[in-house]
Every structure is written in C-alpha cells, then in structure tokens.
Design goal:
The chain is elongated. α2 packs antiparallel against α3. 50% of the residues lie in helices and 23% in strands. By secondary structure, it is of the alpha+beta class. It has five helices and eight strands.
Length: 179
C-alpha cells in the first residue's frame, strides 16, 4: 500500500496513477549495460583467450569500477522509480518522491489553474513529455518524463470538471433544503 492509498480521505478514490515512459530509464540502463559489458569482455579475454591475471590486473580493476558505477546508477534509478507516486484522485493531485525521507506535493483539483505540457519532437514520436502544474497557493509542480502526458492532462481536466459538477449539485441540494 502506497502513500496515497494510506492518505485517502473518506469518499476519495484513486482515478489514475501515472507511469514513467521507458525513455526515462534509458540512460541508467545504458550505464549499467556498459559496466556489465566491460566485466564480460575482461572475463572473456582472460578465460577464453587464456591470458594471465597479472597482465589484466588494471583492466579488471577498471572494469570492476565501471561495473560498480553502472550498478549504483541503476540501483539509484530503480529506487526513484519504485518510490515515486504520481496520482490523480477524485479530490486532489499528488506527486510523492522519496524512500527514507518523503517529499510530497499535493494540490486540490479545484486549485489547479494551469497545466503546461513540454514535449520535444522525440517526445511526440515516443509519446512522452513533462507536465508543469501551477496552482493557487501551491506554486509549481514539475513532473518528470511521463508516459502519455496528454492522457494524464485530460484525466486531470475531467476530474476537475466532475468535482465542479459535484459541488454544483451539492449547492443545489442545499439550496433546495433551505426553501
């Protein structure tokens, strides 16, 4: 159970959970693959070609450092992926990051004034982009590269419309009760 599920108010439901695009993980995976490839290459040179360890000592150390750096980059990235929640509920938008320390940015749907989309040519081709939400009293929430940001924007706008319609209906019912 994630942070958002633990903090839902009564009657509040999760409408949508946003996902990162695969391109967001491209470079961490590339660094890991380069580190692993260097270790595999040195392993092949030593054991398949029969080279002694002493002649490859510097290469082993270099490949080990490359493999460790690639692994650390990938582990850090996986922690970010696993611990980040981007959620639209019936009442609010939540962007939560962090494993040990937690950083949340939340804004009520009716307080969102502007949603800006930043999408490059590659983003349009590969269906990813960044959203920037500006709200009353919240400032700016900048989201990383998300999968299908236009769909997320539409979901936020539809949730805002549904919330406004629900509030109008409640006001109408309360006005009818007063009469």
């Amino acid at each position: 159970m994630g942070y958002v599920d633990k903090t839902l108010a009564g009657g509040e439901e999760v409408i949508h959970r946003a996902n990162f695009n695969w391109t967001y993980s491209f470079f961490p995976m590339m660094w890991f693959a380069l580190g692993a490839a260097s270790l595999a290459l040195i392993f092949y040179i030593q054991f398949a070609a029969g080279r002694p360890y002493e002649s490859l000592k510097v290469a082993w150390w270099s490949a080990g450092v490359a493999g460790a750096c690639g692994s650390l980059i990938l582990i850090n990235h996986l922690i970010i992926l696993i611990t980040t929640e981007i959620v639209v509920t019936t009442y609010r938008f939540v962007y939560k990051t962090g494993l040990i320390s937690r950083n949340t940015q939340e804004v009520s749907l009716n307080k969102i004034e502007e949603i800006t989309l930043h999408q490059s040519i590659w983003g349009r081709l590969l269906s990813y982009g960044k959203l920037v939400l500006r709200g009353t009293g919240v400032g700016v929430i900048e989201l990383p590269d998300l999968d299908d940001p236009i769909h997320l924007r539409r979901i936020i706008e539809n949730a805002k419309s549904a919330l406004r319609a629900d509030q109008r209906e409640r006001r109408r019912i309360n006005d009818d009760d007063d009469d």
